[in-house]
Amino acid sequence: MDGFDIGGIPALAEEHRMVRDLVVKFVERDLMPLEPAVLKRESEGQRYGLTPEEEAPLLAKCKELGLWGLDVPEEFGGADLPLSALMAVEEEMGRTVTPFLFPPDSPNLHMLKLAANAEQRRKYLEPYARGEARSSIAISEPGAGGDPAGMTTRAVKDGGDWVINGRKIWVSGVPRADFIILMARTGEGKRQEGVTAFIVERGTPGFIIEREIPMIGGRRTYELVFEDCRVPESQVLGKLGEGYAPMQLRLNVRRLQMGARCTGMARRALEMLCEQAKNRTTFGVKLADRQAIQWWIAEAATKIHACRLMVRDAAAKLGAGEQIRNEASMVKVFATEMAQEVLDNAMQTFGAMGMTKELPLQLMASQVRVQRIYEGPSEVHRMAIARRILKNGL
């Protein structure tokens, strides 16, 4: 498939296929061997993650192989991969439960690239792109997760500063973040109007980490409180009252990333399902010869193929500057629900073994279940897709 254009979807260039193939080897040789230790710690109630002793050589290997800053602009030392190539990389990374990311976090990078001014690029984007700084983003609020109309965190101008008051929830990666991108109201608009993005550095007075929230799938999120949190005018990211557009870009990149990761997880589940089906016999018949299993395999392969094409199509359009809000919503819904189905069937094929924490399937299934909520619940996306089609057609 890589050598052809399918339905107008550009094929991966040769150099991008080479990067993807390098990532395949990295995942299989360096990440998958760490899975037993990661799964064992998670099953014992320890934090889901890598130890410093495990992570350090991986980071060194990334630098050695050139797998660092893959979509970072060349001016900052990155490879400047197009989004379509980046999504091929993300798919391969989705095949393992070893929690490792190629620095930096791509969605926030794209938001900073779009909205940061010259000084912010020097102070935040450049060290972030080099992997010397970490970031997170705070959008959701208690009672206003998927609906921006409910956002109540407000920033009020006071002299040369902005004073922020409000509360955010479900924020990832806060303890290790050097700065967060905070969305707050500065105007009177009821939805995207009047929303502004701010860069708030860790340690800013009034920026409080209220609590840590354990999530299924080994993840942890945080609730944040802002009490008279004062930031200077220089911390406004992008144009005042126009923070929704760069935030939407960030969300679209993240939704495509999730689609690619779900494709990778479903592939891994299908590989495991097929191996189990070929090797296990019940009542004198191999599972691979049973129609129910064959249909699961056929359905999974078909939907994985469709999902990959959806992600690649949306990534190509976004990379060309097109609006993909509908496509991103479709990818988000289809990919997460597809992966959930494939993983569930794989777990069923393994029987009791599929219910254990010794296999990666259960952890992937929990992570996909969370993703059906993250970056907008499936129901909200379906509503948005329908509204746009009713208004504008396909």
From TrEMBL:
Keyword Flavoprotein annotated: yes
UniProt KW keywords: FAD, Flavoprotein, Oxidoreductase
Superkingdom classification of source: Bacteria
Record-annotated Acyl-CoA dehydrogenase/oxidase C-terminal domain positions: 241-390
Pfam families the UniProt entry points to: Acyl-CoA_dh_1 (PF00441), Acyl-CoA_dh_M (PF02770), Acyl-CoA_dh_N (PF02771)
Residue intervals of the Acyl-CoA oxidase/dehydrogenase middle domain: 137-229
Flavoprotein is among the record's keywords: yes
Acyl-CoA dehydrogenase/oxidase N-terminal domain segment(s): 14-132
The protein's required cofactors: FAD
InterPro entries, A to Z: Acyl-CoA_dehydrogenase, Acyl-CoA_Oxase/DH_mid-dom, Acyl-CoA_Oxase/DH_mid-dom_sf, AcylCo_DH-like_C, AcylCo_DH/oxidase_C, AcylCoA_DH/ox_N, AcylCoA_DH/ox_N_sf, AcylCoA_DH/oxidase_NM_dom_sf
One BP annotation, GO: fatty acid beta-oxidation using acyl-CoA dehydrogenase
SUPFAM superfamilies registered for this protein in UniProt: Acyl-CoA dehydrogenase C-terminal domain-like, Acyl-CoA dehydrogenase NM domain-like
GO CC annotation: cytoplasm
GO molecular function term, any single one: flavin adenine dinucleotide binding
Similarity annotation: Belongs to the acyl-CoA dehydrogenase family.
Annotated protein name in UniProt: Acyl-CoA dehydrogenase
Origin species: Roseicella frigidaeris
Lineage per the UniProt record: Bacteria, Pseudomonadati, Pseudomonadota, Alphaproteobacteria, Acetobacterales
